[in-house]
Amino acid sequence: MAEVTADTIIDDVIANYPEAEKVFEKHFTGGCYTCPAWNECMRLENIAMGAKTHEVDIITILDELNSIISREG
Fold first, then answer.
1. What is the Cα–Cα distance from 48 to 28, expressed in whole angstroms?
2. What is the dihedral angle through the alpha carbons of 54, 17, 45, 63, rounded to the nearest 10 degrees?
3. Closest CA to 50 of 11, 3, 1, 2
4. In which element (H, E) is residue 34 found?
5. At a CB cut-off of 8 Å and minimum separation 6, what does 58 contact?
6. What is the structure's pLDDT at 57?
7. Residue 60: which residues within 8 A CB-CB, separation 6 or more?
8. How far apart (Å, rounded) are the C-alpha atoms in residues 28 and 56?
9. What is the end-to-end Cα distance of the chain in Å, rounded?
10. How many Cα atoms sit within 13 Å of 27 on the Cβ side?
11. Which of 3, 10, 27, 53 has minimal Cβ neighbours within 10 Å of its Cβ?
């Protein structure tokens, strides 16, 4: 995976870069990680959907995720 985009599925990012899960934990607050549907959501939702749901700036998330990818390259 060279770079994540708004269309990238959350689970794909975490599967390839486990460190990326910290970014989602940081920004997708409000019970996502305790919600029984979290595993299903991350398999189906892309980053844009998650950012919109949690009212988080998509550019911030993408910058943080792509920074992890470039470090782990």
1. 12
2. 50
3. 11
4. none
5. 6, 47, 48, 51, 52
6. 93
7. 27
8. 8
9. 9
10. 24
11. 3
Instruction: Please state the pTM of the whole predicted model.
Output: 0.81
Output the CA–CA distances (angstroms, integers) from residue 13 to 28, 39, in the order listed.
15, 13
Mean pLDDT by 10 residues, the chain (73 residues): 88 91 83 64 82 89 94 74
Nearest to 47 by CA among 2, 11, 1: 11
Q: Which residue has the tokens 């899960």?
A: 21
- Show the CA angle centred on residue 41, arms to residues 31 and 25, nearest 5°: 45
**CB of 54 within 8 A of CB of 29?**
yes
Q: Which residues contact 2 (CB under 8 A, 6 or more apart)?
A: 69
Q: How far apart are CA 43 and CA 60, in angstroms?
A: 21
